[in-house]
Write a structure and sequence with these properties.
- The complex is a heterodimer.
- Chain A contains seven helices and six strands; from the N terminus they run H-E-E-E-H-E-H-H-E-H-H-E-H.
- By secondary structure, chain A is α/β, with parallel strands linked by helices.
- Chain B contains seven helices and no strands.
- The chains are: A alpha/beta, B mainly alpha.
- The interface between A and B is medium-sized, with 25 and 23 residues.
């Protein structure tokens, strides 16, 4: 006899309540930008993925944060709520902390600077490069944005080319455009 | 490599649940199921490799079955696991241990498949308690060597 959904959920909740998880994750199947995989640790939100392929993602999470990676909806609820509010235009700032412990120093410096770019505004790769100590490193900034572990919460969609072109986005340009429109940064 | 717990759990939850329902009945199996995987979760960071995870989680479940049966017997007498139904634990361990010498194989299966104490294993394989203990640990060493 297979495990009933009730028993399955009960175990997943108990595992989180006993604080035995390195990463709790859930897939939000139906957001305006498609399905999102959200991962959280005791230190904050550590992963947001577009078009998630959980099997592969879980292995990466296990390598970075520890092997006890389990789907468990309760720990993800707060991020989910803030994302819902953001998508419906009722939130312009995330209160959940990003967990950047596993990120290399330079990336963390850039992502921390990125966090200051406000809702509805944009900046450029070159500006971020200058703010983080190397004005010629615009291309490196692009790489950091591309590997941003928590898009939306850390707003890499607000970084555009010097000419104002959207340039690129890890989740695809359509999503970048959609997010910037939501925020009123473009018409 | 140790797989993410999610993959390990998804792979084994149904067979562990079936095993527990057979041993304990549906109601008691529910608590035992949760306890099995919580214990596995606690021990998971200490695992050194991802081989034999199935035998490992069956061992945990078998211990929980024994604990549960002990708690429910007034005199604390040992349940006779080996006399029970369809030999599921043996079937689970059998493929892993096929290449071992027969005594080592039997000792491992009885120890980890049925959670029998070593004196009973000794009686079953026709040797002393001490010899049964040695056969099981020699078998485990050999299995570890084969994985490397």
């Amino acid at each position: 006899m297979n495990v009933s959904p009730t028993l399955d959920e009960r175990f997943r909740a108990a595992a989180a309540a006993a604080r035995l998880l390195d990463v709790a994750f859930d897939v939000l199947p139906d957001t305006p930008v498609g399905p999102l995989l959200v991962g959280v640790t005791d230190h904050g939100v550590c992963k947001i993925s577009f078009d998630p392929e959980p099997e592969r993602e879980l292995e990466v999470l296990a390598q970075r944060f520890g092997s006890r990676v389990l789907r468990s909806s309760k720990p993800v609820e707060r991020v989910q709520l803030e994302l819902d509010q953001y998508f419906s235009g009722r939130r312009t700032h995330f209160d959940v902390e990003p967990d950047l412990r596993s990120i290399a120093d330079y990336h963390r410096t850039v992502l921390t600077e990125l966090a200051h770019v406000e809702y509805g505004h944009t900046t450029t790769y070159g500006t971020l490069a200058a703010l983080t100590g190397n004005p010629r490193a615009a291309r490196a900034i692009g790489t950091v944005m591309n590997r941003n572990p928590v898009p939306i919460v850390l707003p890499c969609h607000r970084v555009v080319g010097a000419s104002g072109s959207l340039t690129g986005y890890g989740g695809g340009l359509d999503r970048k455009e959609w997010l910037l429109r939501l925020e009123g940064a473009i018409l | 490599m140790i797989p993410p717990f999610e993959s390990f759990y998804e792979t084994h939850r149904d067979e562990i649940h079936r095993f527990l329902v057979r041993k304990l009945g549906r109601d008691r199996a529910e608590d035992a199921f949760q306890e099995t995987f919580l214990r596995a979760l606690r021990a998971y960071p200490r695992l050194e490799h991802g081989a034999h995870l199935r035998a490992w989680v069956f061992t945990i479940a078998a211990r929980i079955v024994v604990d549960d049966m002990r708690r429910r017997r007034p005199q604390g007498e040992l349940p006779e696991l080996a006399a029970e139904d369809g030999l599921p634990a043996f079937e689970d361990l059998a493929p892993l241990t096929e290449d071992l010498p027969p005594k080592e194989r039997a000792a491992i299966v009885l120890r980890y498949g049925y959670d029998l104490p070593y004196d009973e294993i000794g009686a079953a394989i026709g040797s002393s308690e001490q010899a049964a203990r040695q056969a099981a640990s020699a078998g485990v060493r050999r299995l570890r060597k084969e994985q490397m």
